């Protein structure tokens, strides 16, 4: 990918940082991409993650981190343009296509992504995965939602509670 | 499979939204201040069950990640989400996500159109706590038209929105949106359209559609006229940009992020 104009005076060559997953895999990635994470941004601004140091991410395994970084690298140029006000429709369509494809994944991976996006505070990714889950929920009954998300069958107490609350917002089940 | 835990011991600290129907803006305020408090709840919850620290299926979505998801579910879906489990119901209620007070639960007003006179009257239920004015004086008018009582005839209405000749308006929020100009097909300059408004706030609170249906043939039927009678292109008439304004403003509903970001 093209190095974004980050304007932090690094003489053209994109600054790289190293991230270390929970299973000790090292990922070298451009600082601009990693900075999509609010959590990492401060460390990187302080000059961390460069050289042989690396930033340890004890909550993110390598499979998830590689997926997260795939998102960050794709979205870094647009983010560097301040939300890409001058992006062409083609660029936007391409990002949208990428996003749709990106969340077309197994539920366990999706769940790991939710947790990682949450821990790393990557706003765009948080929105993307939340929208994906919301789309999975839409138009489903409570039981269908439970099954879709792999919840166990409700206990008799839970079932009773469900029935009790069924009367509220009755219009929604017409 | 999503790791799952649904603790019935979770404390519901906030009143459900429907007991506080006029709390506009509360959702937005909470966005700034409350996630930390929600995390505390989560922490407490974990503390209560330390015997399953990392067992599969013993995890739960972080409170604000769950809120992010639920904020993207339309009201009808949220009602179903409330029944999924106790913590989901707490998340919907404590974040005031389901604004049942703003959904069409009862008849609040009746519109009567006098077709021959081209006027419309709005009759309001006396019990309305915040009366809605039938005056559409917030709409832009042609400069020459300074008659206060001038009523723009209402072409159609749907769940609280009014379709006028050139605008869609919400008399309750006093917000409006101009309609895109009708693109008349070549060769059919006198084609007439019947306009209809489609809006279901329980499914898409921020989206409505206007459908224009050709109703009359041009006086002389020729090739151009025949083509013009085909079903209109719905996509070109769908007002995609209006994701924000109709039920209430972004902050108070707390689901306008997609539109504003």
What is the 3D shape of chain B? Answer: elongated
Beta-strand content of chain B: 5-15%
Q: Regions of chain B with pLDDT < 50 over 5+ consecutive residues?
A: 4-59, 217-261
Q: In angstroms, what separates the terminal alpha carbons of chain B?
A: 31 Å
Placed side by side, the strands forming the largest sheet of chain A appear as 2-1-3
How many DSSP-defined strands of chain A? Answer: 3
Q: Spatial order of the strands in the main sheet of chain B?
A: 3-4-5-6
* Percent range for β-strand residues of chain A: 5-15%
By CATH reckoning, the class of chain A would read Alpha Beta
Name the biggest interface: A-B, 38 and 39 residues
CATH topology of chain A: Potassium Channel Kv1.1, Chain A
Radius of gyration of CA atoms of chain B, rounded to a whole number: 24 Å
Please give the CATH architecture of chain A.
Answer: 2-Layer Sandwich
Quaternary status: heterodimer
Q: Give the overall pLDDT of chain A as a whole number.
A: 82
The helix/strand order of chain A is EEHHEHHHHHH
Low-pLDDT runs of chain A: 1-11
Largest sheet of chain B: 4 strands, antiparallel
Number of structural domains of chain A: 1
Name the features:
heterodimer, A: 174 residues, mainly alpha, Potassium Channel Kv1.1, Chain A, 3-stranded mixed sheet, 8 helices, 3 strands, disordered N terminus, B: 261 residues, alpha+beta, 4-stranded antiparallel sheet, two-stranded antiparallel sheet, 15% strand, elongated, disordered C terminus
């Amino acid at each position: 990918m093209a190095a974004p104009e980050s304007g932090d005076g690094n003489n053209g060559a994109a600054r790289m940082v190293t991230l270390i997953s929970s299973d000790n895999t090292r990922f070298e990635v451009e600082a601009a991409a990693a900075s999509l994470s609010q959590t990492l941004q401060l460390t990187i601004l302080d000059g961390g993650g460069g050289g042989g140091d690396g930033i340890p991410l004890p909550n993110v395994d390598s499979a998830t981190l590689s997926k997260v970084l795939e998102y960050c690298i794709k979205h870094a140029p647009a983010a560097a343009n301040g939300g890409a006000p001058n992006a062409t429709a083609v660029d936007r369509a391409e990002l949208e296509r990428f996003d749709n494809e990106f969340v077309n994944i197994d539920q366990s991976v999706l769940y790991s992504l939710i947790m990682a996006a949450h821990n790393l505070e990557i706003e765009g990714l948080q929105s993307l995965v939340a929208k994906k889950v919301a789309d999975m929920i839409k138009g489903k009954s409570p039981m269908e939602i439970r099954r879709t998300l792999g919840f166990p069958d409700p206990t008799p107490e839970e079932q009773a509670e469900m029935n009790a609350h069924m009367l509220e917002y009755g219009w929604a089940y017409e | 499979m999503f790791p799952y835990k649904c603790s019935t011991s979770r404390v519901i600290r906030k009143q459900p939204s429907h007991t506080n129907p006029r709390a506009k803006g509360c959702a937005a305020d909470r966005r700034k201040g409350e996630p930390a408090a929600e995390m505390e709840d989560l922490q407490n919850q974990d503390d209560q069950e330390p015997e399953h620290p990392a067992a599969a299926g013993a995890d739960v979505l972080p409170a604000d990640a769950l809120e992010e998801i639920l904020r993207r579910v339309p009201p009808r879906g949220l009602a179903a989400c409330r029944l999924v489990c106790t913590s989901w119901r707490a998340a919907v209620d404590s974040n005031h996500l389901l604004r049942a007070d703003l959904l069409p639960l009862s008849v609040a007003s009746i519109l009567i159109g006098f077709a021959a006179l081209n006027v419309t009257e709005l009759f309001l239920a006396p019990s309305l706590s915040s009366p809605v004015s039938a005056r559409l004086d917030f709409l832009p008018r042609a400069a020459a038209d300074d008659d206060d009582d001038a009523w723009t005839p209402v072409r159609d209405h749907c769940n609280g929105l009014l379709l006028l000749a050139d605008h869609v308006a919400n008399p309750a929020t006093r917000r409006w949106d101009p309609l895109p100009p009708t693109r008349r097909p070549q060769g059919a300059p006198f084609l007439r359209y019947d306009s209809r408004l489609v809006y279901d706030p329980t499914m898409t609170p921020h989206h409505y559609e206007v459908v224009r249906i050709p109703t009359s043939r041009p006086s002389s039927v020729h090739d151009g006229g025949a083509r013009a009678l085909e079903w209109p292109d719905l996509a070109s008439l769908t007002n995609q940009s209006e994701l924000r304004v109709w039920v209430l403003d972004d902050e108070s509903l707390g689901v306008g992020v997609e539109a504003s970001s």
